[in-house]
Amino acid sequence: MKIGILFDDVGKAGLDYSAPPEGNPGVGGTQYCFLMLMYYLSNIQQEDEIIVYCWNHKGSVFPKNKNLHIKYINEPEEAIELSVKDTIDIFLFNFSHMLTFQSLLEKSSLRCITWVHNWVRGKLLNAMAECSAVKRVVFLGQEHYDRYIDSPIMDKAVVLPNMFNTEGYIRRDKDLSAVVTYVGALIPSKGFHALAAVWKDVIRAFPEAKLYVLGAGNLYGTVDGGIEPVFGKLGIADREYEEQFLKYITDKDGKLLPSIHFLGNVGREKIDIYKKTKVGIVNPTGRTEVCPISALEMGAAEVPVISKNINGLPDVVINGQTGLLVNSKKQLTQSIIELLSDDEKNKQLGEHARNHVFSNFNPENITQQWVRVFKDMLEDGEVEVISPSKNMRNNFKWARVVLYNLKKIPLFHNLPAMIEIEDWISKRLYG
């Protein structure tokens, strides 16, 4: 089997991608997932040929497996042309390219699989559903999948969670001080401002608490909306966003609180921070999150994670078992203080978090799931639709299920999916 993969790391230069199981080398979460998949596919499926079409020319180092070949391209569309020439059996690409690829794919003979790493709007969703070349659409978790249960995309949809290498993974130190670690880009959609807004309340209860911030405003090359960041006075985030959160974490003289430590974009050295961390924070607003790798990293290190009880977080952080999911600013403050003060609960959640990651995100198992999906595609197998069964209030899932069942009745078969209704409302409200 010949598998083609479009890998988009434009803007990254000279990074070492040779050993992704050892940790993220300093790319965004989506790119890291692609690196992990190409690494494990080429190691486990040694009889298969993996061709990576890399949209970058900046000298990064890839794994040197004999069946893994790197071809550099100037534009992502070149990957389609080369895949046809290379007689690729299956072509995998990030869903964000779907609209520009659609007409080219329809003219090709490729069998494609799109990997969805974020929440999808109706236009993109319909493009994937309608494109005959797209045979499978991969969602990252049950919550991710459930959000589109009433859409035609379900005829192509499968769930394949992100993988995380647990072999020899570190455990945090036994004796811990009050260290809280936030991991994520410093852009509005990743929610650092929500943590900043409660930090003074935390240090009133725990004056010795320290906050380590791993990430910066240029992790993805741009801020929300694809705009190049213009950094603020600290040089860590876009000026406008930096001003938004700095007011919460500076003293009356405008100086940064001594408990705050901005460490910027970090690679594998983040492990040293995790070992010292008592409480982990991942996107306290929950916006955009589907299956955050940072939550897996900290969970595997026995660090209980706090985040928002929304979107894909319930698949990654099991509330009250492996971490805490909150619904308000007050709950965020209380949860941080609780896990800083209750050592026994902190330890228990951390141990369960490690077991959860080890059991459900094992790379070898997930790679085999990918291989089964590939083989099923080649055999023109059909997809079984799985009806939602839990967290029915998450993103109005109950309403999506009602619509899904209603559309089974011929009279209502052409009703729009909930995501299309949401798009319609959004356009009317925000233009």
TrEMBL record:
Residues 178-355 form the Glycosyl transferase family domain. CDD domains: GT4_PimA-like (cd03801). SUPFAM superfamilies: UDP-Glycosyltransferase/glycogen phosphorylase. Keywords: Transferase. Transmembrane segments: none annotated. InterPro entries: Glyco_trans_1. This is Cps29N. It comes from Streptococcus suis. The lineage of its organism: Bacteria, Bacillati, Bacillota, Bacilli, Lactobacillales.
